[in-house]
Amino acid sequence: MKETKIGMKVAYKIGILFAVTALLIIGLGQMVTPFGIPFTVCVLIIFAMFMVMVSYIIKNSFSLPIFDIIKAIENNAVNKDLEIRAFDKNSEMFDIAAAISNIIERNNRANQKINQRKIIEMDTVHQISKAMSARLSLEEVLRMIIDLATSVLDAKYASLMLIEEESNELTIRVSNGLSPEIMKKVRIKVGSGIAGTVAYEGKPYLSTDIENDPRFKKNSNPKFETKSFICVPVKLGDKVIGVLNINDKKNHEIFNDEDLHLLTILANQAAITIENSRLYQQAEKKVEELEMLFSASKVMSSILDVNILLRQVLETCIHIVFSKAGMIMLFNPDSMQFEIKTCHGPIDMRCAYEFRIDSDSELCERLASELNAVLIGNIDENIDLADLTNYLKFKVKEIICVPLHTKQKVTGMMLVISDSSQNNFVSSDLSILSALSTQAAVVIENAKLYESMKDQFLSTIRVATNALEFKDAYTSGHSERVTEFAVLLSKEMNLAQEDIENIRQASILHDIGKIGISETILTKKGRLTDEEFATIKLHPSIGDSIVEPMALNPAVRAGIRNHHERWDGR
User: Fold this and answer.
1) Cα atoms in the Cβ-side hemisphere of radius 13 Å centred on 453
2) Cβ partners under 8 Å of residue 483, min gap 6
3) HEC string of 46-60?
4) Does 34 or 314 have the greater pLDDT score?
5) What is the DSSP letter of 550?
6) pLDDT of residue 40
7) Which residues neighbour 434 within 8 Å (Cβ) at sequence distance 6 or greater?
8) 205-207 and 337-344 as β-strands: parallel, antiparallel, unpaired?
9) Cα 507 to Cα 556: distance, rounded to the nearest angstrom
10) Domains within the chain, CATH numbers bracketed
11) 331: Cα within 13 Å, side-chain hemisphere
12) pLDDT, tens digit, for every residue of 240-295?
C-alpha cells in the first residue's frame, strides 16, 4: 500500500507539470509567433524546461530519499529493522523507508528459515554419516533412521518398510507410534496402495488429504488425527529397497514441500547406510557360516561310527538354522524306500519305525534332479510329507529337504523342521544346509565304507580265532566271551567310541599268539612244567608279532601284548 501511495504522489506532480507545460506551449505560441520566432523552437525550449522539472521531481522524490535510506541501512546492523523514526511521517521518504524496512524484515525472516532448514539438513546428513562409520547392526541403523525422521519433522507416527525379495512385499521393520500388532500385520505388495506405489515407481508422495486418498487403505492402517502424509522411496541408485513413511505432525500442521525435500534427503542417505549395514552383516554371516562349516567338517571327519556321525550332522544343521526338529533318512535298497536313521526334537519315536518315503516319490525325484535343498511351505498339501505331521509334537511351519548325494546319486535326505512360532527360513539357510550336506554325504559314505571294511576285518580276525580254538577245544568261545564282557565294561565306564572299538579288536585277538605255541602244550591235560609254562607266557608277544603286518591301532597291539599283565602292573 505504501509503495502505491508513493507512486501516486509522483505521478500527480508530473501530471500537473505536464498540464502547465501544455498551457505554456499554447500561450507562448500565440505570443511569440508575431515576433518571428518559430513555433517549433518555442516548443523545444518549453519541452526542455519540462524535462528539467521532471528530473528535479524524480530526484527529490526518489533519488535523494533512496540515497538517505541506503545510508541509514548501512548504519544499521545486519538483520536488524531499519530505523525510520528519523524521517518525516508525512514525507514520501518515510513511506519508502517503511516499505523497504518491511521488505528487509520479511527477507531476514525468510533467510533465517532457510538457514535453519539447511542446518537441519546438514545435521541429518551428519547423523547418518556417523552411523555409516559406526558398524551398527541393521536393526540399530533402522532405529536411528526412524528416530531421526520423527525428530526433524516433528511427527507423531513414522515407519520404515523394507522389501522382502522372496515375497516382493513391504513389511514394517521399525516404527514410532505404531503398535506391535500393526507392525506384524501390515504386508503391502509392491505396486499396491501408497507405499507400494512409491516403492514401484520410485517417486516420493505427499498427501494433504489422506482420508480421501483412494490409494490409502483404511482397513489396514490406524486412524490418523490429521490428513497429512509423506511417503518417500529408500533408493540405492535406481533400486528401491524400501519406503519411509511420516504422518501426523505433533503441532497439527500440514506437511509441505520443504518437509518432503528434507525427508527425501534423509531417505537417500539412509539407503546407503542400510546397504552398508546389510553388506557388513552378510560378510559377518558368511564368515560365521564358513567357520561353522569348517568346525562341522572337522568334527564329522573325526567320527567313524555311522550312527554317531548321523546324530552329529543332524544336530549341527538344526543348530545352524535355529529349527525345532529334524531327521536323517537313508536309502534302503531292499525296500526301495528312505528310512529314518536318526531324529532330533519333539518327535514321536514311532516315526522312526513307521514313516517312510518311496524312492520313486515326487519329492525324491525333485531332490534327485535338483541336488539342492528344497523348501516346503504347506506340509498338508505335500503328499510325501503330510503323514509326518502325525508324529510331530508341534505345529509345523516349514520344512527344508536336503539331499545327501555322492557322485550325482542321492543316498539319503535330511529334513529340517521349523514350528509356527519361528521365523521363516531364508535363502541363506538353504545354501548353508546344501553345502554342509554335500560334505556330510561324503563323510557318511566314508564311514559306511569304513564300517564295511571293519566288519570284513573282524570277520578275518574271527576266522583266525576260530582256527585257534579248533586247536584248543578247552578254550572254545573264550575270545567271544572276553570281547562281550570287555565291551560292556568299557561302555559302562563311558569310554570314547574309538577306545571301545580298540578294546573290541584287542579282546578278539588277545590269544592269537597261541597259534605259535605247540599243540602238545596247549592240549596237555596235566600240570605244565616250568619250561612249558614259560612257553605259554610267550603267546602275548607272539600275538603282537603276528598282527604287526595288519597295521592295527597301537592301542590294539598294546592290549594284545599286555593282556596278561597283573592288576598291580607286575
Assistant:
1) 10
2) 504, 507, 508
3) HHHHHHHHHHHHHHH
4) 314
5) G
6) 62
7) 372, 373, 402
8) unpaired
9) 9
10) 2-96 (no CATH), 134-282 (3.30.450.40), 302-446 (3.30.450.40), 472-561 (1.10.3210.10)
11) 19
12) 999 999 888 888 888 888 888 888 888 888 888 788 877 777 777 766 766 666 66
| pTM passes above 0.70 | no
Nearest of 159, 158, 244, 161 to residue 205 by alpha carbon: 244
**pLDDT value at 135 more than 80:** no
Name residue 332's amino acid: N
CA dist., res. 101 & res. 82, Å (int): 5
Give the CA distances from residue 291 to residues 284, 425, 444, in Å, rounded to whole numbers and listed in that order.
Answer: 11, 20, 21
- Rounded to an integer, what distance in angstroms lies between the CA atom of residue 278 and that of residue 504? 54
What was the pLDDT predicted at 16? 64
More confident residue, 100 or 323: 323
What span, in angstroms and rounded, lies between the C-alpha atoms of 404 and 327?
12
In the three-class reduction of DSSP (H, G, I as helix; E, B as strand; rest coil), residue 533 is classed as helix
Q: How far is CA 536 from CA 414, 524, 525, 543, 556, in A?
A: 54, 12, 14, 12, 21
Provide mean pLDDT across the span 543-567.
81
The span from the CA of 76 to the CA of 85, in Å, is 13
Residue 434, all three cell numbers: 546344501
Mean pLDDT of 407-413: 86
What is the rounded distance in angstroms from the CA atom of residue 89 to the CA atom of residue 72?
A: 16
List the strands of the sheet with 155-164, edge to edge.
187-189, 169-176, 155-164, 239-249, 229-236, 205-207
Give residue-wise pLDDT tens across range 301-344.
Answer: 666 677 787 888 888 888 888 889 999 999 999 999 999 989 99
Residue by residue, DSSP assigns 338-369 as EEEEEEESSB-TTHHHH-EEETTSHHHHHHHH
Q: Alpha carbon 560 to chain centroid distance?
A: 59
Amino acid of residue 449: L
**Contact status, residue 319 vs residue 296, Cβ threshold 8 Å:** no
Taking residue 251's Cβ as centre, other Cβ atoms within 10 Å add up to 6
> For residue 327, what pLDDT is reported?
94
Cα Rg for the chain, rounded, in angstroms? 48
Q: Please, what is the average pLDDT of the chain?
A: 76
Residues 514 and 375: their CA atoms lie apart, in Å, by: 61
What percent of the chain has pLDDT above 90? Answer: 15
> What does the block give as the cell for 301?
571327519
> 155-164 and 409-419 as β-strands: parallel, antiparallel, unpaired?
unpaired
The phi, psi pair for 341, rounded to 5°, reads -105, -30
Long-range contacts formed by 533-539: CB under 8 A, 24+ apart: 537/564, 538/513, 539/511, 539/513, 539/514
Report the C-alpha gap between 227 and 52 in whole angstroms. Answer: 63
Set of cell numbers at residue 6: 508513493
